[in-house]
Specification:
The protein has twelve helices and seven strands. The protein has 295 residues and is an alpha/beta fold. The longest helix is centred in the N-terminal third of the chain and has 23 residues. The chain is globular.
Length: 295
């Protein structure tokens, strides 16, 4: 997926937000944004990929400020999500049959992508989560959950590409349900700080390894899947995957740059117009959509 006009505003606005999180030094803030506008002026064009140019943006902020802007917020997000995990596991267990359990777990994963976990001081009650889940169902613009489940019933291995910290906790519920159908699940987090995405530090904090059979990272601090930056270990696993579950827009933006080598299940909320247009649904809708290899 290539950038559109709206991406220019979003890329710069997020850079400004990150700089404010990273430092109170107004002179340094201005230096970073001055460098950022020069970078975008040189590198932002019709062939740019949002996730790739966003990676360069984030790494520039980290390099110039010496900080991961989201470090504290990621920790808060993980704690908040862990606090509601038992109630959500119970919600799935209350479902009447295995099909309903899988669907509820998938909707929780979609809801996790809809929640802004990186907002400082945000808390959730079980009632609010149930409300969000009901909205996820009603806002499900593309519903291939049953097809997703059927794929899992016959697969031996599933790779789960995680998105944000906090969100990764709720994804563990879906990993549990996928494993109940038989496949081994390998969870994949980022190889270093990028956006508010989950890394190995987050995986350890939330005990992701107690749900997934194996946890690895992409080998690089890069948004989505970046074939030029990711490690050989990750890419070998990626290319040999039977099924890929990809959470969030960053994975969608990067993975749509090439044909899938295996069925790829995108679970996300269309939080911006360019992604919504690419999917073919309105903005702020939830989708569980499967992309298949070309025949």
């Amino acid at each position: 997926m290539k950038v559109s006009l709206e991406c220019a505003h979003c890329l710069l606005e997020r850079a400004i937000n990150q700089v404010r999180l990273a430092t109170d030094d107004e002179e340094l803030q201005m230096d970073v944004i001055t460098a950022m506008t020069k970078f975008l002026g040189t590198n932002f064009n019709s062939e740019s990929v949002p996730s790739h140019i966003g990676t360069d943006r984030d790494l520039m902020v980290q390099r110039m400020t010496g900080k991961d802007p989201y470090e504290a917020l990621k920790r808060e997000s993980n704690i908040m999500a862990l606090n509601i995990l038992p109630e959500l596991l119970q919600l799935v267990d209350e479902a009447s049959d295995s099909h309903s359990k899988f669907r509820t777990a998938t909707l929780i994963a979609a809801a996790a992508n809809a929640i802004e976990f990186d907002v400082s001081g945000r808390e959730f009650s079980l009632d609010e989560l149930r409300h969000i889940l009901s909205n996820v169902e009603s806002d499900l613009a593309v519903d291939q959950v049953d097809e997703f489940r059927k794929l899992c019933e016959t697969a031996k291995d599933v790779i789960f590409l995680h998105d944000n910290a906090g969100e990764v906790v709720l994804d563990m519920i879906l990993i549990r349900e996928i494993k109940r159908l038989g496949p081994k699940v390998t969870a994949v987090v980022k190889g270093g700080p990028i956006l508010n995405d989950a890394t190995m530090i987050d995986a350890d904090e939330v005990k992701l390894g107690e749900y997934a059979d194996e946890v690895i990272d992409t080998g690089a601090p890069a948004i989505g899947v970046n074939l030029e930056r990711n490690s050989k270990e990750f890419l070998d696993l990626f290319y040999s995957a039977e099924i890929i579950v990809a959470k969030g827009m960053g994975n969608f933006e990067s993975l749509t740059e090439f044909e899938p080598g295996s069925p790829t299940v995108h679970i996300m909320r269309t939080k911006c117009n360019p992604v919504a247009k690419h999917v073919g649904v309105p903005k702020n809708k939830n989708v569980v959509i499967i992309r298949y290899p070309p025949k």
